[in-house]
Amino acid sequence: MKIKSVRARVFEWKGKTVPPQGNFCSNAMDLVYSKTESMSTFRFHSWTVVEIETDDGIIGLGNVALAPAIAKAIIDQYLTPLVLGQDPWDYEYLWQRMYRATHAWGRKGVTMAAISAIDLAIWDILGKSVNKPVFKLLGGRTKEKIPCYYSKLYRTNLDEMQAEAQKYKDQGFTAFKMRFGYGPAHLQKGVTENLKSVEAVREVIGYDNDLMLECYMGWNLEYAKRMLPKLEKFEPRWLEEPVIADDIDGYAELNQLTSIPISGGEHEFSLYGFKQLLDKKAVSVVQYDTNRVGGITAAHKINALCEAYSVPVIPHAGQMHNYHLTMSTLASPMSEYFPMFDVEVGNELFYYIFDGEPVAENGFIQLDDNKPGLGLTMKTEFLDQFNIIE
Ligand SMILES: [Mg+2]
Question: Fewer CB within a 10 Å sphere, N or C end of the chain?
C-alpha cells in the first residue's frame, strides 16, 4: 500500500452565526490594550480537511483547526512531497521525516498542527486497511464507555449560565466546565464577577458533580495568585490555562500554590513540550489536542509519558481523534465534550464538516468496535454553507 495523493482543503463557514457576548471568555488578548470588548471578535470559522488516498483506493481523513490557510500551505508545499509514494504503515518514519525536514522553522504551532493532520489521515488509513477502529490499534478498549464532561458555559448573565448548567445536568452530565469572563484589566469588579459566576454554577450542580474552570490564558501570574485562594472553597476539579502557554514556571508556581490542580496543554506541542511540563510539575492534568500535538503518533507517546508521571490525560475539545486515544489509554479517565450547537465561536464547527462524531448519552460517549479507522466521513448536509478553498 502506497500513498497516491494528498488533498488539503480549507472549509470557511459562510452560514449563519450567533455572535458571542463580549466577555464570554477571558483570553490572552485581554492583557493588551484594545478598544473592542474582551473576546468579542474572537472567532475561528474555518477548518482544514486533509484527505490522503492510497493506491488501493482507501481514503484517510485528517483535520486541523489552527491557522487553516497556513496549515494548508505547509501541507501542500512541504509535507505532501515527503509522504507521497510512501507506505502509510511506516508512520513513525514518515512522522520523523516531516518533523525533521521542517525543524528549522517548525517544531511547534501551525507546522506541528499540519503534521498532525497528515498523521491523523495516515492512522485513518491504517484502521481502514485492517478493518479496525483506530483505538484497537493503540491498545484497544480500556473502558466500557467514555465519561465526558460538558464543556461550554460561556460567561453570560448568571441566570442563563444556571439554566444551561441545569439543562445539561438533566441530560445526565456529572461534570461541567465553565469560562471566566474577566481578568486583570477588569480590576476588583472583575474578581467579584468571576467569583459570582462560579458560585452560581455550583449552586445548580451542587458538590456531587465536578466543576472545571477555564481561563484560556486570560490572567497573569499575579492575578492568578490572588484568585486561586478565593476559588479553593468551590472545590474545582481543575483550573485551566491561567497564564500564557509559554510561562511554564508560572504554571509550576500556581500548581504548588493551593489544592486546586492546574491544567493545560492545548497550546503545547510534541513529546518534548510535554516532558518539560511534566518535569517541572507545571500541570496536574494534560490536555493536548491530537490535531495540534503531532497527531496520533505523537499523542500515543505522550500518553505513555503521562502514565509514567501519574498525570491524567484529558484531551482538549472532544472530537474523534481524541476519543480514540482516550478509549485506549488507562491514563485518560474522561473526555471533553462540546455538544453540537449553532455556529458561534468555532468550537462546534467540526460537527458541520464531519459525520460520525458521537453524541453523548447520560454523560458518556461510545465508540463502535466495528467502525474502521477514525469513524468519520464528510458531511454533505452543510456543504453549500462553506466556501471551500482547494
Ligand atoms: Mg481550554
Answer: C
